[in-house]
Amino acid sequence: MPDDLDYSPLAAPVDPAAALAHAKANGDHPGRDTACCALVFAVIVAAVFGLLSILLNMYLTGAYPDGGVGIRLLGLLPLVIGLGLIVLVIVQDRRGGGRVWIDHYRIMQFAARNGMGYRMKVKDPEQPAGVFDIGGNRCAVDVVSIEGPRPVEVGQYHYMAGYLGGETYQLGYATTPLDAHLPHLLLIPRAKGTGVPHVSGGASLGNPDLRGPGTEAFKVFGPFGRAGEIQSLLDRTLFSPDLLARYTEHPVHIEIVENRLYFFSPKPLSTTDPDTWRWLLALLTDTAERLES
Predict the structure, then answer these.
(1) Any alpha helices (H) in the chain, and if so which ranges?
(2) I need a labelling partner for 157 at 20 to 30 A (CA). Which of 90, 108, 143, 276 fits?
(3) Per residue in 119-141, pLDDT tens?
(4) Does pTM top 0.90 for this prediction?
């Protein structure tokens, strides 16, 4: 894994026009999407607050028949509030969208500067980890790929599930192939605030009876009837004191499936934060090498 990466593009100034052009060139249509959402929101808000204005006007006219222009203007107050809310939401949405486009552009520039591959959006990514098979509208964004003796892919994964399939889930992931035949394992950190990724592959895994400090840091799921083999494997690899200390500092969900290692995190992993790239690439590489030893 390269240890001399140039992280300067992650914080470099970006021309908003270039960031927007990059987003459009990669299949994103932020202007059109924002306009559609803004129109729907504006119609709903205008209808609700307009109705409130009509009802308030009717009440004030009946209660104060000689109120004059002042009463009529007071009756328009809900509509004015609604229009102000529309303007505020649209401005905030455009600012937020601008930041997202700039982040995409910076990560692309970071990948290009360091000879990495970059795809802004990958629909229905093909990965053996269970989370990539559930929900709808599955896509990965800011997918950075590193070639070489230790291939690595890092991205942000999004999918929709939950009630009527309307809730959006997102998590960062990093993966690398393993030169070793290992059982399907899923390790979920016990630390608070680490989230619980929806991993369908875990449904066929048991909860082996393991011992040691590693089980204080992780809930472990693996094949039924192989607790002794799993205990031995973890004790000499992931549950070694040096790796456990690093997992405590940077908690990640770990999955080993079909000879691939995965890290998952509710926090972004393909990000504009240089420190995240530093610890992530080092920890992923060291974990893979330990599993292959």
Answers:
(1) 16-25, 30-63, 68-75, 77-113, 214-217, 227-236, 241-249, 274-292
(2) 90
(3) 999 999 999 998 898 888 899 99
(4) no
